[in-house]
Specification:
Number of helices of chain B: 10
Helix content of chain A: 25-40%
Order of helices and strands of chain B: EEEHEHEHEHHEEEHEHEHEHH
Strand order of the largest sheet of chain A: 2-1-3-4-14-13-12-9
CATH topology of chain B: TIM Barrel
Distance between the termini of chain A: 11 Å
Structural class of chain A: alpha/beta
Oligomer: heterodimer
Radius of gyration of chain A: 15 Å
Number of domains of chain B: 1
Radius of gyration of chain B: 17 Å
Strand order of the largest sheet of chain B: 1-4-5-6-7-10-11-12
Number of domains of chain A: 1
Number of helices of chain A: 6
CATH superfamily of chain B: Aldolase class I
Largest sheet of chain A: 8 strands, mixed
CATH class of chain A: Alpha Beta
Distance between the termini of chain B: 13 Å
Strand content of chain A: 25-35%
Shape of chain B: globular
CATH superfamily of chain A: Class I glutamine amidotransferase (GATase) domain
Number of strands of chain A: 14
Structural class of chain B: alpha/beta
């Protein structure tokens, strides 16, 4: 059972429907016991960093996530969920994140249209079981105005996309995985990535 | 590289997809969930659903359609029509839509855009602009399906929409809508050059060339169309193959 953390983060239905399609059991929850008993965690998210981290802190989720990750439980952050893994975000101010990964969240440079919205290709930086049955340069769906930047651990970069900068698209460090795009909205490629993730952690 | 997007638009009335010429003489086309699935499989990059009745009792039928669509397809889609409040936005996002398209309500209440962008994020707030050319050669924003002039300049409104926090603009040229004589290139380009958010061109698609022209020459990031797709006049795989040959990056 995957625990999808519920903190009123907008459209979670698409993610649940995608997991249903893959016949993966999931539950949308803010109950600490359910999260502790789950085999893995997904931190979804759309919207503003400030609201998200405030909400997670208020629900006590930040602490639970740190504990569960320290205990070795796999966690997947999607879009804003991935950004929340980092130390700091500079979205409308300066906000402290969960701090599972080193680095910061910065605005995409205005040399391109922001938000980065639409289908972009993934470049690989290292081999990963996530790429099982995935073609070279697959298109996935992005929609975000901020991206991981500043000094981050380059060895965590599994895949990136080019959009005014090198946008970290898949990051991984031990049991922590992040996807900046929306696999649940990325057609067959996205579903395959979620399936590969599921197999990678089981 | 970021791909240009092809977006079929589905007008939904009482749970069915309809298509009218210049919003009048509406004809029944198909079941929205079936059609959405077909477009998903054909390689559409995104879909837009407009609730064209938007009366209260029919609202629930529409939200039910939205949720069914979200369950069936794995590409993003936007929902518009009758969006007047934060609650309206919340209910369509909660039903599984990625984006909400706001049109008339933003004219009388521009703060709806900024409030929604703060609460849900700019990425899901689309400002939809219907524009008509005036005698003085400018473009004026019209509402209520093109029946009412607002006195607002379309380009100024686009800039304001971006400032308020819209994450994308759909520019619909009422003059070319349903005519199949091509997108309004001048208007689309003027809007695209005025803002730094993605632009979706709408209204007038009739041939393969119309798509490539608006994507190449008018700086549009996406092209929206309805009847050429609904009636099978332009199959999406064929359109994408054509655009690729024209050196436009598309998702294949």
């Amino acid at each position: 059972m995957i625990a999808i953390i519920d903190y009123d983060a907008g459209n979670i239905k698409s993610l649940q429907f995608a997991l249903d399609k893959l016949k993966v059991e999931s539950v949308l929850t803010k109950d600490p016991a359910t999260i502790k008993n789950a085999s893995s965690i997904i931190l979804p998210g759309v919207g503003a960093f400030k609201d998200a981290i405030t909400s997670l802190n208020k629900l006590g989720m930040t602490e639970i996530i740190r504990e569960e990750v320290a205990n070795g439980k796999p966690i997947l952050g999607i879009c804003l969920g991935m950004q929340l893994f980092y130390e700091t975000s500079y979205e409308d101010g300066e906000w402290k994140g969960i701090g599972l990964l080193k680095g910061s969240v910065n605005r995409i440079p205005d040399i391109v249209k922001v938000p980065h919205m639409g289908w972009n290709t993934l470049q690989r930086h290292q081999e990963s079981p996530l790429f099982q049955n995935i073609s070279d340069d697959p298109f996935v769906y992005f929609v975000h105005s901020y991206a991981i930047g500043g000094p981050y651990e380059k060895e965590t970069l599994v895949s990136s996309s080019e959009y005014g900068m090198t946008v970290p698209a898949i990051v991984q460090k031990g049991n922590v995985t992040g996807m900046q795009f929306h696999p649940e909205k990325s057609g067959d490629v996205g579903l395959q990535l979620l399936k590969n993730y599921r197999e990678m952690i089981s | 590289m970021l791909a240009k997007r092809i977006i079929p638009c589905l007008d939904v009335d009482k749970g069915r997809v309809v298509k009218g010429k210049k919003f009048k003489d509406i004809q029944d086309v198909a079941d929205p969930v079936e059609l959405a699935k077909r477009y998903n499989d054909a390689g559409a990059d995104e879909l837009v659903f407009y609730d064209i009745t938007a009366s209260n009792e029919e609202r629930n039928i529409f939200l039910d359609v939205v949720e069914k669509v979200a369950r069936e397809i794995s590409i993003p889609f936007a929902v518009g029509g009758g969006i007047r409040s934060i609650d309206d936005i919340n209910s369509v996002l909660r039903s599984g839509a990625e984006k909400v398209s706001i049109n008339s309500a933003a004219i009388s209440n521009p703060e709806l855009i900024s409030e929604a962008a703060t609460k849900f994020g700019s990425q899901c707030i689309v400002l939809s602009i219907d524009a008509k050319e005036t005698d003085s050669g400018k473009w004026e924003v019209v509402i209520n399906g093109g029946r009412k002039y607002t006195g607002i300049d379309a380009i100024e409104w686009a800039k304001k929409g971006e400032k308020l926090g819209a994450g994308e603009i759909v520019i619909n040229a009422i003059d070319t809508d349903g005519e199949k004589s091509g997108y309004h290139l001048e208007l689309t380009k003027a809007i695209a050059d005025a803002v730094n958010i993605p632009i979706v061109a709408s209204g007038g698609a009739g041939t393969l060339e119309h798509f490539s022209t608006v994507l190449k020459e008018a700086n549009a990031d996406a092209a929206l169309a309805a009847s050429v797709f609904h009636y099978g006049e332009i199959p999406i795989p064929e359109l994408k193959a054509y655009l690729e040959k024209e050196n436009i990056i598309v998702r294949r």
